[in-house]
Amino acid sequence: xxxxxxxxxxxxxxxISSFLTxxxxxxxxxxxxxxxxxxSMDALTLNWVSTSYLFASAVFLLPFGRLAxxxxxxxxxxxxxxxxxxxxxxxxxxxxxxxxxxxRILQGLGSSMIFGTGVAILTSVYPPKExxxxxxxxxxxxxxxxxxxxxxGGVLTGRFGWESIFFVSAIIGLAVLVLTVFGVRESHAGTGxxxxxxxxxxxxxxxxxxYGFSRIPETEGVVLVLLGASGILAFLSWxxxxxxxxIGIGLLTRNRQFAMSNLAxxxxxxxxxxxxxxxxxxxxxxxxxxxxxxxxxxxxxxxVMTVFSPLAGRLSDRIQPRLLxxxxxxxxxxxxxxxAFLDEASGLPEILAPLVVVGLGFAFFSSPxxxxxxxxxxxxxxxxxxxxxxxxxxxGQALSMGIALALFALFIGAxxxxxxxxxxFMKSMKAGFIIFSLLCGLGIFASLAxxxxxxxxxxxxE
Length: 462
What we know:
Largest sheet: none
CATH superfamily of the largest domain: MFS general substrate transporter like domains
Shape: globular
Strand content: under 5%
CATH architecture of the largest domain: Up-down Bundle
Order of helices and strands: HHHHHHHHHHHHHHHHH
Number of domains: 2
């Protein structure tokens, strides 16, 4: 696939799908109260409406990334969009809370087939000198979805009901499916077979660890996290002797650029994902803002990401990605430290400035880091690399929320957030941003330690 028109179709299809998944996630969060009221959900069940999607995405990302490298990336990408679209349509017809969660799991399964393969297809059709720009546009689409999700989701829920979010998502998904089927040529299909035993060990360990984080600080949560960590070690041990491993251990042990770039991504998402969660509570409870007002303020961070991600992507075609990504992580750490100074008397400029700084840092980290990850492997491993990077993102998001929830348990306990507990909330929020800033600071060293970027593929395969 060498002509510019075909590349443009791939870019449009991948970018729309990259817009859709975060748009749906952020808009659904706005609709959770309406969904809970419709099905009389308790808080735990309502929480699973969001987390079941995240869990399913993380569990299946790596196996489907590997399967895409074997059977063809277009095939997996198209099936992922079809499953996501079907899940969205069925959500409109949900008869019960259990069906809602089941459909969210189905949507997570479809998303896991999209995340890694979309980036892999993009990487395979764009030459190295143009790849950063394409990845930058793709990343900008992600942030645009995050930016528009709360606003459009609120409007749709208020005027047409929560079901309209999934109906709109289904229409977008159908458009991507049509573009993919008729406009995207099959990406390279490799050889080998899927490692079923390794996939089961990996998936089971991930489920235990992620569910365990949601149960911390209870004993059950700690046990599950330890069980999940032990399972990951068992998975790595199995992969060393597997005939056709899910991921070649040499990719992590001998490819420093790949390993450290993924570690940097994990740390960065661990340090940043809970920002919206904490700031939403701060703005609505401490600053007494309406959800609409809070949403407009929080949109500043992803909006800055959307604007600057293409620029960062283009720069990563000319400047070593590790330098740009490390600079971005440094700026993010600075923004997080500024958030730790917020208090009850903070004004709008003091609130907006740190969010803008974090958004700028995120933009200059994400696109170059993605470029570094995909440039560290050969084209036969693009699907696997994209899936692994997406897994690091989802795991980082889960850890970020785990840290926030653990701090809530420590400072607030199992209580509703009432005015009497606002000082305790402020302590937990400040502690969280301090921890996240320090974590991001450590991530700078991981980002720098990846070494120089050595491109594995000199030209696109199609």
